[in-house]
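Example record

Each entry pairs one chain with its bound ligand, magnesium ion.
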Amino acid sequence: MQNLLQNLNPEQLAAVTLPPQSALILAGAGSGKTRVLTTRIAWLIQTGQVSPAGIMAVTFTNKAAKEMLTRLSAMLPVNTRGMWIGTFHGLCNRLLRTHYRDAALPQAFQILDTQDQLSMIKRLLKANNVDDEKYPAKDLLYFINNAKDQGLRAHDVEAYEPITRKFAELYELYDQQCQREGVVDFAELLLRTYELLSRNQPLRHHYQMRFKHILVDEFQDTNDLQYKLLKLLAGYGEAQGGALFAVGDDDQSIYAFRGANVGNMSAFERDFHVKNLIKLEQNYRSHGHILDSANYLISYNAKRLGKNLRTDQGQGEQVRVYEASSDLEEAQWIIEEAKNLMADGIPRSEIAILYRSNAQSRVIEHALFAAGLPYTVYGGLRYFQRAEVKHAIAYLQLMDNPHNDSAFLRVVNFPTRGIGARTIEMLQGAAEQYGISLYASVPYMTGKAGSSLGAFVKLVEGARFETQQLPLPEMVRVVLERSGLLTHYANEKEGADRVENLEQLVDAAAQFVQEEGFGQQAPAHLGPQAQAQAGELVVSEDGVEILDADAPLPAVMSPLSAFLSHASLEAGDAQAQVGQDALQLMTVHSAKGLEFDAVFITGLEEGLFPHESSSREADGVDEERRLMYVAITRARRRLYMSFTQQRMLHGQTRFNMKSRFFDELPDESLKWLSPRVQGHWFANNKKTTAWDDAQFRNAGTDNKIAQQITQKSGNGSGWRIGESVSHAKFGEGVIVNIEGGAGAARAQINFGSAGMKVLDLSVAKLERL
Ligand code: ATP
Ligand code: MG
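Structure tokens for the complex follow.
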């Protein structure tokens, strides 16, 4: 036990060894919150206060859950199987699988990812002749998810406006459709669990008694429904229930746009009469300049619970700031700096390149590819979301649950087998008429349509029958072949990658079977037989149908069902593919909780970061600032920031001003790499220094780049893009573009409230600021 606790500071030690009551650990980035949470689990078990089965821990991503389990297995010589560690979605999936009957779900219910959900909504709008200009599918998607995140069913929505009424009506139809198909969306996993537990008292009591300790990481980003669920499990207002141990950082609350409510922290303190509130202020992650930058920046936010961070690691190096002429040049600069870092011995996987919007990654990726540097993108199109993989998954889904209409429509005519749009329309008509799934409607079809659809059903049934006795990876292989997918892509001109991706699915299945501990001998039965083979549900003392507490999850599911859930849940996880020796590209949102030796924060421009959408919301810029705080605090030793004078985004060239966040960072912690910037941008209105090529070269940047930039900005007008100017009539402004050469140059200038003007530079009386 000594081992477990010996590397903790006094506050951490106090937090880890708190008595079994509800507690809130409020602490800044890198102060060891996640470490404390993990160590507390190990300590509780090691001191015999709870068995592994009495632990529920909630993490923000599947990857974080895996990491926590790995750590715990290393710390503890006990079987960690019985612990429930996962994301809210993963844990709810597990609960609903175990109690599918009570939750009124088919045993092989399937999970819709956001993409499937959207296509289902589009079908629903079409089937109901709803004008999708007036009621766009994406708006309805948002409406439904938002309502569910708040715990509201269609009839709970307060619908005063006609549009809300219509949306609520469609929400109701959507839910009915999901139920018919045996599918649930991500938000439904939570809502269904919440409803199940609130209505079913014996079941609720069972879990309240079982989970003596519920521990939640990243608590600041829980939404209303998640908090309500935690309250149920922890027995709020009831006689029994475990202790809720929450760790979080209000300054890192960055998911308000998805319904996260940082107010849950104070609500928790109040609701659970939290007496144990511990703050951790020692940061173990970052060097001084990095931490100073984070502290300084976040102090510009008004509503904070208040805490600071200090480090013993020394100031380290300053934050390097670079102004690029364009996004292309920004990418080149990143590559040069990354190469320097690697030459210093920093592994590629310890270098992260962060951006605010996914769209920014294209240019960076392209440059990395051209430079031959391996990289991984999180949050892009992940493996399980690729078209060919989704097609293969759809066949497997149909074998497991033929009533999944999304899966049916995806592959009924893929690869093409002569089933036309007309046939599908007729089939949809029949399904609508009888209120059944497409699959179940096939027998009602006659003639040519009937026979071609019949052949498809036969194909699916045949594959199911043929693979019944096979282990999961074998099953996947047979399906890839029988479906015709492999042949289809092999015949495609550039299908080699896709064939490779499909073949990887066999490996993914093999890895899954191994990691989840499905016995090698156990045949991958489908349907109810699997349950009998793998482990019976038993009735517990309190009359609840449960699994043996130590039984692994798969006992309630066939390996195929488990694998399909895994695929859907992982498709929704922004951090699915960490750990390769490659540069790490990701949005700031998906960097939460992670740390790297070196971090680049790119695109620090007004409109991009802070994002333009933030100006429309009350707390918008504060939320962006928290996001910037998250970005800064990912870095251990080196931090870089960059912005550009112009960039292509969504097909437009934009000229943005540098981010306001630069004015909110401590001067002494920044090192400006481009000297022209120094004179110009410093907040205290120092005079602009003219563009100085020689100085720029001295700053150590690649000569070729320097020349390119000189050519670009050397328009001979004597002015440059980004300069602040003043005009007698229009006031102060910023030059956003310059056209034409010396003598005939015209500048496009943003005068703020006076608007955008184009002025002839040989005539206009402009002053430098
Ligand atoms: P975030 O807010 O970013 O999620 P966090 O508060 O969860 O951060 P951790 O990730 O738990 O912080 O810890 C940050 C780093 O500091 C980790 O590398 C961790 O191993 C290390 N660390 C935490 N506590 C100590 C300690 N007492 N001694 C040495 N290293 C520590
Ligand atoms: Mg953490």
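The two ends are 64 Å apart (CA to CA).
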